[in-house]
Specification:
β1, α2 and β2 form a beta-alpha-beta unit. α2 crosses α10 and α6 runs antiparallel to α9. The strands form three sheets. This protein has a five-stranded mixed sheet with strand order 7-6-8-5-9. The protein is elongated and about 65 Å long. The chain contains eleven helices and eleven strands. The chain has two domains: about 150 residues, D-Maltodextrin-Binding Protein, domain 2, CATH 3.40.190; about 120 residues, D-Maltodextrin-Binding Protein, domain 2, CATH 3.40.190. By secondary structure, the protein is of the alpha/beta class.
Length: about 325
């Protein structure tokens, strides 16, 4: 090794050692006093991931006194932009966040856009298990899943970006169940609800928590549910006989079981990671809270580098009754 190479190696070791020493000097919650924590949400504002992410920030900030949590929405490329940003961040415990669990599929299939290894990232916690539901617009005449199966004309169902859990799960279920549905991807945040109200699409397969208010307001209708313990909606697995379809349903259910995760880059020191996990565990209200987080609880920014064109949010004043017949 040359003199220059030895010098560079020594310098790098010195920098790493000094940073680790500084981190150890402040351990536990004291480490976060006076520091800004960036919580990355890899979706547009307004959807289920955004809501849960803000609740996580609100309660973790409370349990890490002196810290300031800043929410940064970083949508794009089916959550890959936000997930890659988290993975590439300095492992100092000051940058972590949430992204779509469909990235499991992206890594397994060797998606070239994946710049991380989920098995090596620093897992902090899971806010909830969130069952999936098959939802149709209240403007349709469809009342049951059987009626959906028996349609002679095709419907349009919305999904998030290509490669997201929403897009993969919807496409997989439509194929396995042979449903008369065309999947339209590219809807982020609550754009899918607006699209249903505008009549662009007639349904969606999404998380129950995201669409519960939508259905209660009379804008949509649950036809079937995947996972969860709710008894007001039939379980999709009980409505099909095909074994391959049941396997697809089970896979989608497993995705719901690990939803609403919080994760940081690989290599966060054990002491700092334990502190984050403890703060997350103490923030138990996020597990049962159904309210929207206070807007003043955490600061919020949106990455201009990942700003994407949004569909028009102006809704039609007339709600045309849509019929598949």
């Amino acid at each position: 090794m040359g003199i220059l190479s030895k010098g560079m190696a020594a310098g790098a070791a010195l920098l790493i050692g000094s940073w680790a020493g500084a981190a150890m000097a402040q351990s536990g919650p004291d480490y976060f006093k006076g520091k800004t924590v960036n919580y990355i949400i890899a979706t547009e504002p307004g959807g289920g991931y955004d809501t849960y992410g803000r609740l996580v920030c609100e309660f973790m900030q409370k349990h890490l006194p002196g810290s300031t949590f800043v929410v940064r929405n970083m949508p794009g490329a089916g959550n890959l932009l936000g997930a890659n940003y988290i993975a590439a961040s300095k492992p100092d415990g000051l940058t972590f966040g949430s992204f779509n669990t469909g990235l499991v599929y992206s890594q397994l299939t060797g998606n070239e856009g994946v710049k991380f290894d989920l098995t090596k990232m620093s897992w902090i916690g899971k806010a909830a298990s969130d069952p999936r539901v098959v939802v149709v617009s209240a403007n349709t005449n469809i009342k049951t899943f059987k009626e959906l199966q028996d349609l002679k004309t095709r419907l349009k169902f919305s999904a998030s970006g290509v490669g997201s859990a929403s897009e993969v799960n919807t496409t997989m279920l439509v194929s396995a169940l042979k449903l008369p549905i065309d999947v339209i991807s590219g809807y982020s945040g609550n754009d899918d609800q607006l699209a249903i109200m505008r009549g662009e699409v007639q349904g969606v397969i999404s998380s129950r928590s995201s669409f519960e208010p939508f259905v209660k307001e009379g804008k949509g209708r649950f036809l079937a549910q995947i996972g969860g313990s709710d008894t007001d909606v039939p379980q999709l697995s009980t409505l099909v006989d095909n074994e391959e379809a049941k396997k697809a349903i089970a896979l989608v259910e497993s995705q719901g079981d690990i939803s609403r995760l919080t994760v940081g880059p690989a290599g966060i020191p054990d002491d700092i990671l334990k502190t984050l996990r403890d703060a997350y565990a103490e923030a138990t209200p996020i597990r049962s809270s159904s309210r929207r987080p206070r807007s003043s609880a955490c600061r919020s920014t949106r990455s201009s580098a990942t700003r994407l064109p949004l569909r028009s949010r102006r809704l039609s004043t007339s709600r045309r009754k849509w019929s598949p017949s």
